[in-house]
Amino acid sequence: MIPFNKPYLVGKEAHYMYQAVMAEHLSGNGPYTKKCQKFFEERYGFKKCLLTTSGTDALEMCAMLCDLKPGDEVIIPSYTFVSTALAFLREGAKVVFADSMKRNPNLDAEAIEALITPRTKVIIPVHYAGVACDMDRIMEIAHRHNLLVVEDAAQAIDSYYTSNITHNTLLEEHQTSHIKHNTSEGNRVPLGGIGHLAAFSFHETKNITAGGEGGLLVVNDERFIRRAEILWEKGTNRAEFFRGAVNKYGWVDMGSSFLPAEINAAFLWAQLENLDEIQAKRKALWNKYYELLNPLADKGYFQLPDIPEYASNNAHMFYLVCRNLEERTNLIKFLKEHEIQAVFHYLSLHSSEYYKNKHDGRELPECDRYMDTLVRLPLFYDLEIEDVERICEVIRLFYV
User: Fold this and answer.
1) Distance (Å, whole) CA 212 – CA 1
2) Partner residues linked to 75 by β-bridges
3) Which residues neighbour 96 within 8 Å (Cβ) at sequence distance 6 or greater?
């Protein structure tokens, strides 16, 4: 059986975890935590990075930093994982669901403005499959309505957005003067580095993992840095104490135990050292899928992943959009009969058992279409080109 996913081990994870144990610093914010955070700050120009125990925790920190009040509204796509909504619901916000685009499952930026009310505080674009949302448009809307933008970049490690405007204008007009970025890439900005805040995931299904679970909070707006550290350290100013900024620390705010254990950071560090190699292999597999399946897509059998001109491809996922639910169900069954595991993805949150009675009743047809028709194919480092060729041949047999 070709599995849908298989976590990749580069070989040094156990060695670095052993070093962390022998250093006798097992709790969070140790040497490996600092190395990982510095990696993201230096490679991508993120202003401040804090490792978390999961992408969900990173999103919860984002929601806390937005300082929401009961009844405040946040706009998110319905076609996303439940954590995107839960983080903000926990803070008492009202979730307002937006539809996806026709061309891909990302939030339809053109649908946002009609959803804004005087209670709207935050827009949360989700970069589905690591492909950028239309961030120029989203940031322009946010700037005009004085809203915060939180990027759910759970799937978007090492992926980029190319702005149609100059980088300095993007910073000064579309965001806030508090946001600073590394501008060496010109108009090419890493995802997670555009909004005020961002969250990444290092779950075992992602391109890199921190040992099964893990996440990262990115703070691009300087106004949120001090409070982010306090929330991260269980509501204390402990981080400032260890830097020597204060002579004692205590309870100063809300917070929780968001720090991962040092052994998780050590595991992640081994993966980060090999990020370029991991990305190169995944992209080769993604490109082979596209090459072999494109002739079938041209005949109208299904829709292939869409990469807009402003987005890069980090090869997080390869998916097909079938013509209807019955076809997808039969395709998944056919692949399973040939020892290939393919899976569908999200159920639209607006129609979920928990939230359907709270939704305002608007129809979100594109979200529902992806819910019924999108199927994800195996994509992981240990997959070989020969495996992709076999999978594509089985798909060809199903359709032809």
Assistant:
1) 22
2) 96, 123
3) 73, 74, 75, 76, 115, 120, 360
Interval 365-398: pLDDT, tens: 999 999 999 999 999 999 999 999 999 999 999 9
| Side chain identity at residue 189, one-letter code | V
Q: Backbone phi, then psi, for 14, in 5-degree steps?
A: -65, -35
**Contact present, 201 and 214 (Cβ < 8 Å):** yes
> How far is the C-alpha of 386 from the C-alpha of 282, rounded, in Å?
14
Give the angle 121-311-149 at the CA atoms, nearest 5°.
10
Q: Which two tokens stand for residue 334?
A: 């056919």
152 in helix, strand or coil?
A: strand
Average pLDDT by stretches of 10, the chain with 400 residues: 97 96 88 97 98 98 96 97 97 97 97 97 98 97 98 98 67 48 66 98 98 97 96 88 75 93 97 98 98 98 97 98 98 98 96 89 95 98 98 97
90 phi/psi in degrees, rounded to 5 = -60, -25
Q: Which residues contact 24 (CB under 8 A, 6 or more apart)?
A: none
Element (H, E) at 148: strand 148-152
| SS3 call for 305 | coil
* DSSP character at residue 79: S
In whole angstroms, what is the distance from residue 175 CA to residue 143 CA?
6
Q: What is the DSSP string of 321-360?
A: E-SSHHHHHHHHHHHHHTTB--B--PPPGGGSTTTTTTS-
pTM of this prediction exceeds 0.90 = yes
Cβ neighbours of 397 (radius 10 Å) = 10
- What's the CA gap between 320 and 293, in Å, rounded? 9
Which H or E run contains 97? Answer: strand 94-98
> C-alpha distances in angstroms, 45 versus 31, 165, 185, 188?
20, 19, 10, 12
